[in-house]
Amino acid sequence: MSLAVVFARASLGVVAPLVTVEAHLANGLPAFNIVGLPETTVKEARDRVRSALLNAGFEFPARRITVNLAPADLPKDGGRFDLPIAMAILAASGQIPTTSLEQLEFLGELALTGALRSIKGALPAVLAARDSERILVLPAGNGIEAGVIHPCPARLAPHLLAITAWLQQEGELATPERVMSKDRDYSTDLCDVIGQEGGKRALEIAAAGEHNLLLLGPPGTGKSMLASRLPGLLPPMSEEEALEAAAIKSISGLSLDPENWCLRAFRQPHHSSSAVALVGGGSYPRPGEISLAHNGVLFLDEMTEFERRVLDALREPLETCRISIARAAHRVTFPARFQLIGAMNPSPCGHYADGYRRSSSEQILRYLSKISGPFLDRFDLSVEIPLLPPGELSRARPKAERSAQIRQRVLAARERQLKRAGKTNARLSAAELDRFCPLEQEDAEFLEQALHRMKLSIRAWHKLIRVARTIADLEHEEKIGRHHLIEALGYRAMDRLLQQLQN
């Protein structure tokens, strides 16, 4: 047989489209051509496949070999096509049986010895193979990724010879060992934070309603400690959410820890990160920090040190929960549903209270103007984290609440939100706010007057109602009351600071 067809999977965002690998052997001068929009790494497969076949003891056909990767308009990159190309050549030259190839898919990078090296993006390929009811043959190094899927349609091979022996029914390929989801807790706990009861309360509200939170205060007051405790307050991820997050890690080339792969991500990029590092991109788009934080938390510490255009690039993903990156040949969409936590100092010197101020009002306004108003509008809550009062560290304190206790209240509030609207309060649209969060006429007039006094936008009106609805849910209240609105207005520390400086 001089023509053979083998199936493989490309990597395009978090999906793995089917690629048909066709190998044709023709008479003529020996040549080896790969067509079908291959990137440089795919073109280099010619040398890897030739050496791997010869070193594994197979005959490399001295004929005109043409390998087509279809569809031709889909970009292919990486070494993942080495194995399917080698299998197609072996099948076309009659060195392996072809009877079962229609039920199989192959992915793997070949070493020159014929050994298989692990690839990036194996998890989406396993999910796609399961949907197509085919068995996917993978390198043994991708066993942990494949093991999170049950039932798993994958088989693992350490070497090319193991696959050919399996096809000839002379051996068996290993099935990935199932990676079980364990009930593990986070290593950080909110009871470790001394004082800062206001910050803890704001963190609980943010966790309950999936609200974005800005922590404002001098250095060393516990802003980073509070932010790092947020994942421990959030509900456990569902299996679907955990697989989505694991798939993004897979295509990014990050290792999957079998012990905590189902825990929510906490990403903390450095303030020198570029827009591409944060939102994703590149000539062949890769996910950025906002996608790696999918279904988890993105923490921006020292927020005023980030470039303004980098922060503004987050505005659209915060609203749409995804990021689309367009290139000349293709468009890739990555999921980016994350909870944003920001932390910043109130002035260049780090302080703003009387007795500590070492910066003028003009200097502070110039410092805060590094962050655009539309980006600040994306935060539902902004809370002051002050210096601890004298004697707070040395006095005997009652035992603080643990994260597990607060999480129970968060879970109960989330359950009420999902039962009422099918989503968290932070995701409610304007129409849904009118339906699920009605205000009494007197309360609406009170909130509008407060809005005008603080010179807030209509977006702030909606955010205040969402936060008030979450506070009511934490208190098991059916309706939003005046005291809920007052507490929600209290979580506008940045607006009060800007108003104070401008007056």
UniProtKB/TrEMBL annotation:
Entry keyword annotation includes ATP-binding: yes
SMART domains: AAA
Pfam families, A to Z: ChlI (PF13541), Mg_chelatase (PF01078), Mg_chelatase_C (PF13335)
InterPro entries, alphabetized: AAA+_ATPase, CHLI-like, MCM_dom, Mg_chelat-rel, Mg_chelat-rel_C, Mg_chelatse_chII-like_cat_dom, P-loop_NTPase, Ribosomal_Su5_D2-typ_SF
Keyword terms: ATP-binding, Nucleotide-binding
The keyword Ribonucleoprotein is annotated on this UniProt entry: no
Domain spans labelled AAA+ ATPase: 209-389
Family: Belongs to the Mg-chelatase subunits D/I family. ComM subfamily.
The name this protein goes by in its record: YifB family Mg chelatase-like AAA ATPase
